[in-house]
Design a protein that fits this description.
single chain, alpha+beta, Endonuclease, Chain A, Arc Repressor Mutant, subunit A, 13 helices
């Protein structure tokens, strides 16, 4: 059996297997033996996947397969969501049939009530992405809360990004934790963005005036524009911190920066005026926090989160 079903090319698999057998091999010798003249670029890709570390040693087969399976499951999930979103065209066609005119790709909706009414038209959606700069905590018995929790129980995939200032609002954190436990995943983002709701990766509601949500929103159906907004959300989500995750301390930020600047622990520790043992302890804690299998991967994940 090969690893093609998990996303590796035949060439990438050959390189992984080679360094599994001959860890820390000389690059020139490996390139000659494998007949791969662009070996460095292949190795960079395998490092990004986390299955070869910075010392040119392959991680254990069990760990490599686990990483590749996780990546493949995430990719398959995204593809299924895209296929599910394709059913939204039925609603657009039905609207065209009813109204006798083309469905607008970008539509301006005036007023909060009108925006909420249009959002309710998509109540059967299976995925939502939400950027909410300020969130008002609603009581558990509120009708909106009950409807939303019923949708979560029915399989709705929901992710919400909130701003740092939201954490100080009365009752909000407790409410968010309850929702998080039910499946409304929530992260805290240091980045500012106007309020936005993306439904099934095919429709987006974007707040018109960033300072006044009562003005209304743009309803966007243009596929290319919605795809850009989805990418923006995914980037912000990757850089945001978990609801219960503390912010980076000053020394943790310094350790990450020093890790990126220096090749050796001794040099990095000296630059921070701390012991090598203390530096390595910080690095190990950061790797665990990032879910990184090696330091190269930790640096990549830290950069994705905006920590570097």
């Amino acid at each position: 059996m090969n690893l093609a079903s998990l996303g590796l090319t035949a060439e990438q698999e050959r390189v992984y297997r080679y360094f599994l057998r001959v860890p820390h091999a000389d690059l020139d010798a490996a390139a000659e033996e494998l007949g791969v003249h662009h070996l460095s670029s292949v190795i960079d890709r395998l490092k990004t996947l986390g299955i070869i570390d910075v010392s040119l040693a392959s991680v254990s087969p069990a760990k490599a397969v686990d990483l590749l399976i996780r990546r493949r499951v995430e990719q398959t999930s995204r593809e299924l969501n895209q296929l599910s979103a394709a059913w939204d065209i039925v609603r657009d066609l039905a609207e065209e049939q009813r109204s006798g005119r083309p469905v607008e790709l970008v539509e301006r909706i005036e007023g909060v009530e009108n925006v909420n009414r249009r959002i309710r038209e998509f109540s059967s959606a299976k995925e939502v992405m939400n950027i909410a700069n300020v969130v008002r905590a609603l009581p558990p018995d509120d009708e909106k809360v009950r409807r939303f929790r019923k949708r979560l129980a029915a399989g709705l995939v929901s992710r919400t990004l909130v701003s740092e200032k939201t954490l100080s609002l009365p009752g909000w954190l407790e409410s968010a934790r309850e929702g998080h436990a039910l499946g409304d995943l929530c992260r805290v983002s240091p980045e500012w963005s106007r309020q936005m709701l993306i439904i099934s990766r095919s429709v987006a509601f974007v707040q018109i005036d960033p300072a006044d949500r009562t003005v209304g929103a743009l309803l966007i159906r243009q596929p290319g524009t919605v795809a850009i907004l989805v990418d923006m959300f995914e980037g912000m989500w990757a850089r945001a911190r978990e609801l219960n995750e503390p912010e980076l301390t000053s020394i943790e930020r310094q350790v990450l920066q020093s890790l990126a600047l220096h090749d050796k622990d001794e040099t990095a520790a000296r630059a921070l005026n701390i012991s090598v043992r203390k530096f390595r302890t910080h690095v190990a804690e950061l790797m665990e926090r990032l879910g990184a299998g090696n330091r190269f991967q930790a640096a990549l994940l830290a950069k994705e989160r905006g920590w570097l």
